[in-house]
Design a protein that fits this description.
The chain is an alpha/beta fold. The protein is built from 16 helices and 8 strands.
Length: 366
Amino acid sequence: MPLSDSQIQTLARDAMQRAQAGDFAGAEPLLAELVRERPNSGQALHLLGQARLKLGRFAEARQPLERAAKFLPKEAAAQINYAGCLTVLGEHEASLWALDRAARLKPGDAAINHNRGRALEALGRLEEAERAYDEALLADHRLMPSLIARAGLLEARGDWIGALADLDMALTNRPDDATLLTRRGELLLQQGDWMRGLADYEARLLLPGLYAPDLPRWHGEPVERLLIYPEQADIDGDAAMRDTLMLARGVDAVVQCGETLADWLDGPTVRRGDLLDGFSAAAPLRSLPYLLNWSPDSPPPAPPLRRQSENREPVVGGDTWQAHLAARQGIATTIHLPARADWLWGRQAGPSPRRSPWYAALTLVR
């Protein structure tokens, strides 16, 4: 039996009260019932879609939001929420179309232009995306998402100065933001500016996802027994093994590593998961250049390995741990680096081969 007008008003009031209190799980079934009673109510459809967005039910939010956008053609919020849902679902062309309608309703709106930039970037239309971020920042020069997004685009096309300017502006608003500091550090390090970049790069240790043993962090002070370790969660992965071969040098310490490298390293090692009794402190391998004030042009020499490969044929490959192992043994090795290589390799312009200070037998080609 259809609800009376009085019952519908009560239903709408209860749904709104729950939504305003943040109880979207409680509001959603009430709004769904309201839409069943009033299927052409743009406001009810919009509220139902918003509740489902808040609950992370994006696929279910799409239909009411699409209908709300049609019934509320002059409400920018309805177009924006519909576009946001489409973006999450990966429907970027449709999202851009909805955002263009919103932009006609609110010309020059910073948030709309930012979201247009995101959609255009997802579609690979990078020049248009950059212009959209420019327009967003013209309206609000401190808009954090646009500053960060534009910095990424500028960095990708080689405009390091512009990318750094955007990150610097973002950091004036959030000076302790670990993600922003890490990105700025990586950008400076990519340009060979270790003096400024290494300090910022240490902010990565505040981000989730990195491994760290349950030991005091080493800051370069004299200690009785020091542990150095790869910060990657997978200690037997290529990145961790490559870092171990490249960076376990220049300090008297025990190296945490997997079984494969333990057979090669000529020094004390421990496995991940072993008891760490007797250690005074620990440091991640990628912090050693900062803690020990290494130069990118003359890092400390790598200590000798426990054994040598019988095969001494030249090695050509990518930036893998096997190539590092060959170079560390003094085998003539050529590593082909990608366009954006690890910052540890230093700044390298052009495709011409060059020698590397990390291993005497290594030649780098970008």
